[in-house]
Design goal:
With 95 residues, the protein is mostly beta strands. Helices cover 11% and strands 39% of the residues. The protein is elongated, with a radius of gyration of 19 Å.
Amino acid sequence: MKTRADWRNIVKAPEYHESAYLWEGLEENYRGLGVDWPANRYLLIALSGDADVKGRKPMQTGVVNGWRCRYDLQTGKFDVPALFSGDNAKAVVPE
């Protein structure tokens, strides 16, 4: 099948590469962000990801860049404080 000209027109699925990392500031309870959260309760996590698009012109594109959320150590739940809403909307690259 690879010998046929149509083979070159088949779109191959991209390979995704995701990363998650903790924000600095846990020791100060993220006071640098201007918040007054309870001590030792939250972890701030940022997510990023890109895709390797394979085709006639291979390229790498950012899909998510610095999307942030908060993890509550007491309840075990994730949420997105209003503080992050604006930046999170910009972190997702439009299609």
